[in-house]
Amino acid sequence: MKHIGVIGAGHVGLVTAACFAKMGNFVICADNDIVKIKTLRENQMPFYEPQLENIVKDTVKKGRLVFTSSVNKLVKNSEIIFIAVGTPSTDSGEADLSAIENVIFQIAKVLNSKKQKRTYKLIVEKSTVPVFTGQWVKKSLSILTPTGIEFDVAANPEFLREGAAVNDFMKPDRIVVGVESERAKRILHELYKPLKSPIIFTDIKSAELIKHASNSFLATKISFINAISQICEKCGADIDKVAEGMGYDRRIGMAFLKAGIGYGGSCFPKDIKAFIRLAKRFGISFNLLKEVEKINKQQRVIVIEKALNFLNGSLKNKKICALGASFKPFTDDLRESPAVEVMKMLISKGAKVICYDPVALKNLSRTLPGVLVAQNPYDALKDAELMILLTEWPQFQSLDFKKVKQLMKKPRIIDGRNFLNPQYLKKLGFQYTGIGRKI
Ligand code: UDX
Q: Which atom of ligand 1 has the smallest separation from the CA of 338?
């Protein structure tokens, strides 16, 4: 059993803390958001993530997971300190590291106190950070603790996907650990060994780069297939079949070849921006990633063009039902959600948008007050001139489409995620269009 501190109770921090506790460690999780800590102490979750609530409740009950707003308490009681605070984009697109800097100052302050001087600490970056951040952390801690303390810095980027985060943590494809000492390597090896997944040990800079490169590669795959979907539309080929035919090649693989309204979320958009900026600092113009961003934006515009096509060139006062708001299913996260972007564009063109999402409606009303919300999909579809599927929640596949047809003013569907069965819908009398699908 190890004594672990996790600073940051966001998606990465809270999942990390809960899963380490589930593995039998003693974990303290801190966040400077007092409301969030209060919520967690009252046994409630600050966001939706499958399986997480049960793990948090169970490990709290067993005394292996505690929440605090005091970094001081956390540092004093932990041997391994994971930093999982946010690294949002600055206006210029670079990663904003101010939260990390703040945490380092706080850690240094505790380490300078008399009692802590002889206790070794391992400080681990979990947040997605640009290369050289680890070096900066190490240098800063050395300068800020002049009396000399024993510590190591490591980089251990997290690859978990929202909506599947617990599973991704407990059964990762790989664990990346960037270290500079044998001691840090041994500690992190012992910590992760029970997961029985490949552990890639490397230097800190390579570990930092692996995270940015992985996310950028996945986003590139998505934009690539989306560009192909545009060609499919023009020539009458079918993107589902093209992706399948490509994906069987093991060098390519099936994953991340789903065409649609593009990627969003808290990671890809910001990480790609930050990576472009980072490359620029090294004098490299990463035009490939700039194009990836451009294609991603274009996918949302395509939906508006399709809506205009269906509705004779004007969306003014047209009732449009949007199914889904979150950036992908199984999360209530709306950050950089393509669904929200599409709804914004529809509203700006005068449409009356009414949305249903199984878990994200509360967040949606805060984020986009101009949108109407319905408590079930059928209420949202009543008298709609058009349905646009924006997030592929499984329950949208099992809607009673005969009922849907009766409820809608006109049975028209834009499937922004290529998720519904076009043949079946056409048989029922719907007008249907997807993204690059042959119908
Ligand atoms: C991502 C990475 O997968 C994870 O490893 C990283 O650490 C954090 O960022 P996440 O943002 O949770 O995870 O979502 P992910 O499942 O990767 O999807 C990202 C976006 O791409 C979503 O908007 C999704 O709808 C979109 N996507 C994904 C596609 O449009 N097509 C695909 O084929 C796959």
A: 23
